[in-house]
Amino acid sequence: MSSRRLKNISKKDYENLVCVDLVCHGTPSPLIFKEHISFIQNKTNQKIIDYKFRGKEKTGWRAYIKYIYPDGKSEKKIWGNDFFAYSFYKSRFNRKSCFSCGFSRSERVGDITLSDFWNAEKYYKPLRLQRKYGFNLIMCNNQKGQNLLRKISSDIESITLPVDVAIKGDVRLRHSEPIPPERDSIFEEFYLHGYEWLTKNRCIRHSWRNKIIPIFIKNLIYEIKARI
Fold first, then answer.
1. How far is it, in rounded angstroms, from Cα 61 to Cα 59?
2. How far apart are CA 178 and CA 181, in angstroms?
3. Would the pTM count as exceeding 0.85?
4. Cβ neighbours of residue 134 closer than 8 Å, sequence gap 6 or more
């Protein structure tokens, strides 16, 4: 249940009711995700017990996709080499409602808002040496949110930055994303031909630069640039 709907139903601001909203990249089709997992399981002849969008053990927030199997073994892929993850980050599998989402704005409905905090290190230099695992954003949208943050302040490490920094760094705090030109045709092809057909005909096309430069070199370049 959304924060807005909950508040509309309660008709009262209960002191012990804290509403939290999230800044969302978008919601991909559950059916396509299910088909993706089945596709990988059939391809590897192994059951997948977990799928992580961001395995951070080695590369931090510039993470890889991680498939975990019952025997404890795992398979890692950079997101650009995983068809579902690539399509997710390109918003090709998102529900249509995501592209006209009324919550993609800085005026929030929760008492606090949680999100990734993109580019925080650009505005607070000490963070540059700690950016490997990314930063979390806590936006206090009213007095109740501020009181809650104050209560937990001794249990977290935090800094205060202007809200405009967060808004500038995350497009979802400004507006919803335009629908990708290929989104509708991809769904039509999925229902007509199936998921495996998509992986072969809507596959990832890397530029020559992406093909010849290893991912760890790219990440190293990004890290150096961020610390300058």
1. 7
2. 9
3. no
4. 60, 61, 116, 117
